[in-house]
# Entry
Amino acid sequence: MAQPKYPNWPMAFLIAFAVFPLVPALDEWFFTFTNRSLVQQVPGMFIFGILTLALNAAVGYVGILHLGIAAFFGIGAYITGILTVPAYPFEIGFWCALIVATLGTAAFGGVIGIPTLRLRGDYLALVTLGFAEVVKFSIQNLDAITGGPRGMNPIPPPEIIGLPEPLFVDSIGFYFLTLAFLVAAYLLLARIERSRLGRAWVAIREDELAASCMGLNVGRLKLAAFVFAAGLAGAAGCLYATSIGSTADPNAYGFNKSVLVLCCLILGGLGSRNGALFGVFCLYGFDQILSPIIDVGFNNKFLPTVITPWLARHDC
Amino acid sequence: MSAPLLSIRGLRAGYGPIDVLHDMDLTVHSGEIVAMIGANGAGKSTTLMAISGVVRPRAGEVRFDGHDLRALPAHQIVCLGLAHSPEGRKIFPRLTVLENLQMGAFSRTNPQEIAADLESAFTMFPILRERMHQAGGLLSGGQQQMLAIARALMIRPKLLLLDEPSLGLAPQIVSQIFNVIRDLNQKGVSVLLVEQNARMALKIAHRGYVLETGRITLADKAETLLHDPRVRAAYLGE
# Structure
């Protein structure tokens, strides 16, 4: 690989995220300033990062314009819900649910992918979009199974053997769990990029005809990418549902989310893992973390200490 | 003569409701360069795509080296030693030159053999070694065509299907490319060459076919075709 040498900033960021909660003073200082704990805010961003990496496999590597990733995110969340809430007889706990959600969502990806991946470009994009809407409305209306607009709860927090109590979602332990999954997804994609499979995916993106002339089974490789993206999105969905203790409202898995994920990818540069994380950091980070902080900071600090005195001085 | 390397009989192929090739017969013997000339839309590229399985033939027989190609999907046809370098070069523009060549060897697994073939590709095209780590899209047109041929050779083919290797290239580069094709053939690769540049193609070929609206209208020794008044009038501009 002929890549220019540059400092590996995503790793630096991840290390910063790993060290940050170990120094409670930092988060406490942050809390006094904004009334928010970063340790509680950031796992959502990690989960969103996993979802974005999942979409990167389909859109970034293979060039499948996929507009329905949120549906797979939702399927993962609802599989987790069905398998863990007390209303159902399963209650198999977080870890088994994670595995089933990943595989089950991947299977959904296969069922959708087999008939539709023959379509190209815009047509495939429309099918994925349509499928995602179908999933959202199905979840909303299958009240008896999914709880409809109320969603399903409570989804129990993950238990880890050896720990006396489960990892409550506002704990540092949960923070590290989601961070670990993000790092694992990142490293998995790094490994795939350098493998035969990753090269083949990129070759298909570059030129499908040439790729099939080189002996690539284009149909099957595209399906593999679609299924892989679905499975990883399902795992992210499982983490998401666990992180909020509920499957949330079906609208959380709508078109807006699919597009936001795609925007993160495009902002960071399609096909780039680091870019995907950068995009998540900018878009999701700003929307969900930085902008509320600025809001609180403005109202609590800046307004009373600067603006109001200034206004008073000028007799307004 | 021994059994031909590639034999096509009664081939019919097309897209959607339209047939492009009607009842076509064609053979390539081992060690030959066979040129296929014809106007735009005659079906030259479709013929190559029907052979390599990118377009599925609708009728007829396509046999290569003892295998029935109609029974196989495109990615398995490649593994039999049939390389197709498609029209318009179709290199992978954002992969490096080296990665492009490695993709060519995708169907193979022996790392030593691949390394050896990579080395011989660089010996044949020294410019590719110089620009090994640059993106394929940054090469000039002639260099991209060399890369496309080198990539197809990474399959270690018995038969190379070349679609318009002279497309959009300066005359000097074109003769360079044709010299390369002749050298390759002397090293034992059989070539089925599709060209608009009929004169150049017939000069290096052993035999030639003239394709008109999906049918072979002339088939003869390349030398004879080059002097055939009909070919001269229609394709050589005389």
User: Anything to note?
Assistant: Chain B has a mean pLDDT of 94.
